[in-house]
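queue> pop job 88
queue> type: inverse folding (structure -> sequence)
queue> payload:
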């Protein structure tokens, strides 16, 4: 009995990955083994960068809060210490948004924190 090989499925699997590598440079887009390795490596980067994204955003929020705090004659660390001491429950994401888009509300929070110092 002749050996049965499912060429339809194997071709479909290769086409699926080659479609995902469209736009890559050189052999990375059309040579099966190179494309497959590149695609798998890309998945690794995607996983790692989802973690890095959280770090980067936290750093950005801290920079924005620090810049706004300096206008109120405070450093970032002093401001955060005062906020925690005052018992104000607000996260860095919201605080940074207030600092950028609503300076009056940010100033009110800073004044409230200074009152409890």
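queue> result:
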């Amino acid at each position: 009995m002749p050996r049965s090989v499912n060429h339809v499925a194997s071709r479909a699997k290769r086409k699926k990955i080659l479609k995902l590598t469209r736009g890559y440079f050189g052999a990375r887009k059309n040579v099966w083994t190179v494309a497959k390795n590149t695609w798998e490596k890309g998945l690794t980067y995607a996983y790692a960068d989802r973690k890095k994204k959280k770090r980067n955003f936290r750093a950005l929020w801290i920079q924005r809060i620090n810049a706004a705090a300096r206008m109120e004659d405070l450093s970032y660390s002093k401001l955060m210490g005062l906020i925690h001491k005052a018992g104000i429950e607000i996260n860095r994401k919201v605080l940074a948004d207030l600092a950028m888009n609503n300076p009056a509300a940010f100033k009110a929070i800073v004044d409230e924190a200074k009152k409890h110092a």
